[in-house]
Amino acid sequence: MGNSVNLEQSTLVREAIDRVRRETAKKATIDNIVRIMRARFQDELPADLRKRLERHAQVELDEVVERSATAASAEEALAKWTRVNFDR
Fold first, then answer.
1. What is the torsional sign of CA 60, 63, 68, 74?
2. Residue-wise pLDDT tens digits, 23-65
3. Which of 57, 67, 72, 84 has the highest local Cβ count within 10 Å?
4. How does DSSP classify residue 10?
5. CB count, 10 Å around CB of 67?
6. DSSP 8-class letter at 8
7. Cα(76)–Cα(66) distance, rounded to whole angstroms?
8. Which has the closest alpha carbon to 74: 14, 31, 47, 15?
9. Beta carbons within 8 Å of 60's beta carbon, 6+ residues apart
10. How far from chain centre, in Å, is Cα 7?
11. Which is nearest to 71 in space by CA: 26, 36, 35, 31?
12. Helix or strand or coil: residue 16?
């Protein structure tokens, strides 16, 4: 009878597993952004949309997803907005 090994707990492959998961999540988010923007803005998408999105961190991509729902244009959804700290 063989021994089972949980590769997710292995220090040898943990970093690779985490990296692949991050890359997969980022690609899925970019795919979703493109899909949302294509549905909302049709032919008004920047030609370099995917390339521009790939430069962003996951947290920034998540913000673009949210802005894509209400933005008046693709460029507005891609623009960084200044967060106001109302606690001051």
1. negative
2. 999 999 999 999 999 999 987 889 999 999 999 999 999 999 9
3. 67
4. -
5. 16
6. G
7. 12
8. 47
9. 80
10. 26
11. 36
12. helix
- 12 three-state secondary structure: coil
What are the boundaries of each domain within the chain? 7-78
Within a 13 Å sphere around the CA of 56, how many CA atoms are in the beta-carbon half?
A: 22
CA dihedral over 7, 9, 15, 20, signed as positive or negative: positive
Q: What's the token pair of residue 15?
A: 């970093």
Question: What's the whole-model pTM score?
Answer: 0.76
Q: What is the 3-state secondary structure (H, E, C) of 23-69?
A: HHHHHHHHHHHHHHHHHHHHHHCCCCHHHHHHCCCHHHHHHHHHHHH
